[in-house]
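for the writeup, i need someone to sanity check this before i put it in the appendix. the sequnce is what the collaborator sent (i think, or maybe the updated version? ugh). structure was predicted straight from it, no edits. if anything looks off just tell me and ill rerun, i have time this weekend
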Amino acid sequence: NNIEQNSELVAHYIEAGADFLKTYSELSPEAYKSLAKEAQARGLNIAGHRPLRISLPEAIEANQQSIEHPRLFLFECFDGAQKFRELPDPIAAYDTHFRRQLVDGHDPVRCKALMQDMSASTTYWTPTLQVLQMSARAGDSGFREDPRLKYVPFILNEGMWQGDADQSANRARDKKGRNIDVEMYQLAKKSLVQAHETGVKLLAGTDAGDSYVFPGFSIHQELEQYVEAGISPEDTIRIATIEAARFSNLDQEYGSIKVGKVADILVLRSNPLADIRNTQKIEGLV
């Protein structure tokens, strides 16, 4: 947030060979715009979180290359979005009552207009649906007692994941018993399909290592959730391969199977176009 040091910060990371600077939620609007301007002038991209006090049109105007996480259109499309951005500390307002407002005040017409603007831009969205799945299912013992926990380091599981899930389970319901986190998760999936149909450029990412987002397994689960939401298996696979390579400016070498490209290929025992879960039936790797 120290605007005076932005030039020095950008120069440092250019010298270090960085491809982009990651932005986080609590950046002030002034610092964000200054950083974006300085980065663009020096040929460096910004990507990551959309700061909570920055609107989506402002992020697009700043040429942010990708925006991460599933709450993007939940925050942007409810009728109190502008007031929320004007709060001195928006994160402090993120309680159960506010999350209910995100659901009840959701404006699909406003959302469609924003998605049309985003589709016309170069900015991608990485929804990481599993971030909200954890909140929605934190009270489900079947979800919590996952056998894959044996792969997770003790200090990560006990020091972060379990406390995170406990907190989510305790705050999921409002005073009337509505599970707001389940409703948010479902709304995020609807927004994903609407964004895809509107032409918003999508990526498949997971925030691996976040609570109950299992590294290695999570990318397959993310693809499952895209299909469950309503995106076709074929489009989902394109998002995870061709679009990923295109976003990274590596589509001349990666992203599809073609003579002259790098052989970076999963050999599967069953067809993922018939069932997206077949991406997990791996015979080998070339």
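The first strand starts at residue 20 and ends at 23. The chain has 14 helices and seven strands.
thx in advance!!
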